[in-house]
Amino acid sequence: MSENKSKDHNSQSDNDEDFGLPPVNVSPLKSDPPKLVADQPAVPVAQESGSSSVPDTGKNPEKKEKKDRTNWVILLILLFILAVGYGVYHFGLMEDFNRNTPEVTTEDTTPPAVESPEPEPSPEPEAAIPETEEPTTAPQLTEIEGREGSPRYFLVVGSFIDDDLARDYSSRLNNSGLNTFLVHPYGNINFYRLAVGQFENLDLALEAMESSQNDYKENLWVLKY
Description:
Layout: H1 2-17, H2 61-100, H3 106-109, E1 141-144, E2 153-160, H4 163-175, E3 180-183, E4 192-199, H5 202-212, E5 221-224
Parallel strand pairs: 1-3
Antiparallel strand pairs: 2-4, 2-5, 3-4
């Protein structure tokens, strides 16, 4: 029994040294002179019936063509999906952009037109009206024969019993550029009074008397009539 175990142990150790390979008897090779081998004609290999005459290159052309078609179909589908996605994305952004941006109209961009005021028509020159010279009336004698509603004040230059004498003196005064007033007799007065001025109040008459007294030899006085 022990012998078998030892044999087994030895054989196992031998096997470990041989790495489990069977024992090989090594013998030296004999070097024989090389023999010339005549070229033998290639023997054609009989082809099975129904096989193609095209030599087998290890790839089936039909499978390759189907695979190429499948690849092209997949590529086209991917391109289509990308195009659809880009279109949706692009138009979606454009729609949001148009919705968010206010519309710009020509009224907002173009400045308002400034209306130029129409020129006012120039007034036509009025036709010059020739000034009519008032006829200069020569100084004259005015006869006072009665009273009026309101009293008047006369600047008397002389009293005459005869109206002819009064009128002669009046003519001389008229020729010198003075208007004269002949007050006819009234009441108990029998004289004709010749005046060189008629006024509405006493103050005006007195002022005229003071300023004109030096022009007359007679004493001037004021008559209320």
